[in-house]
Amino acid sequence: MILNLYQLFKASLMEPKKQAAVRIMGIGKIMQFIFVFISLLTVASFVEWSTGLGNASSSIDGLIEFVEEIDWLLYPFAFVFLFVSTTIYHFIKISFFALIALLILNSRKRRGEYRHLWRTTALSVTIPTLVAFVLSFFDLDFKVSLATSLLTIFYLYVAIGYYPKKPPLSKKEA
């Protein structure tokens, strides 16, 4: 099963069966998907930040003058910092939800390992991340974070339903 990035994105949006199927894919394509997704989020966030900085600082003359003097340094550094911090946050989020998915997997008596769940989670967090990104423009509070976390857990629960069942214990093992 070899999927291109567009097919992975499409699967992350609406196909829990394919989200579960990526568990058998190599980690390289999943990492590529994650880094492209993070890059797109970083570019969008950077554009929003850079246009917002000019609007927010327009009332302070000294700050404007300072920013204009170090533009060549401020924006590349800010972009790199934003990319690195977004990447770290996204990987921690995927790892945390994969741990929750491991609990769900065991409670539903399905077969799988943490590494499989990590790959599935990498796709399952796409919609909640996009929802959180869009809702961040509306100045909402903690409820958005809670709602997107519950949405991620829901997507994982549905995707784990497509994992193979554990075989029943034989009398010798019991």
Automatic annotation (TrEMBL):
Chain segments annotated as transmembrane: 21-47, 72-105, 117-138, 144-163
Pfam families with a match to the protein in the record: DUF1189
Keywords noted in UniProt: Membrane, Transmembrane, Transmembrane helix
InterPro entries in UniProt: DUF1189
UniProt entry tagged with the keyword Membrane: yes
Keyword Transmembrane: yes
Protein name: 4-hydroxy-3-methylbut-2-en-1-yl diphosphate synthase
Origin species: Planococcus halocryophilus
Lineage of producing organism: Bacteria, Bacillati, Bacillota, Bacilli, Bacillales
